[in-house]
Amino acid sequence: MTILRSTYDTNGKYVKFLFQLPPGSQGSPLHYHDTKTEIFKVLSGSLEMEVGEKGNIKILRPGEALEVPAGMHHSFRNTSEDWVTFTSEVRPAGEFEHFLRSLYGLAIDGKVNKEGTPTNLLQFALLIEKADTIIVGPPVFVQKLIVTVLATIAHFLNVDKSLAKYK
To answer: Which segment of the chain is annotated as a signal peptide (predicted)?
Structure first.
């Protein structure tokens, strides 16, 4: 991941990333954002996206873009035998940049499991809160309750300071 336009650069209007996924990479589980729109644009290779209804698959090729409005279910992955390079623009930026910096930083520091999920549940809750992300499947009320409780505990215990180095 490379940050092309930071939250700071755009005064919070958006943040833009460049991603390169190797063949067979799972990018994200099916999810949505309450307040964020994402725009995916493929530069090389092909990006498989699941958008809207479960099972609705779209393959984006070089030059093609897809805008995913807030509330729309989506996921992405590279099911091809070639690398895929694409950009993702998130509007408004909110804390999405800090979410990705922290997630990648924890991975580099060996603090995630094989699926890329932080092993510390309190850090995970803080990241989900920053990403404004709801995973499709588990009841939304339960997810929000668990994230809110764990994030509150994390703030109380100053766990958020452990993510500050990734800003």
So the answer is: none
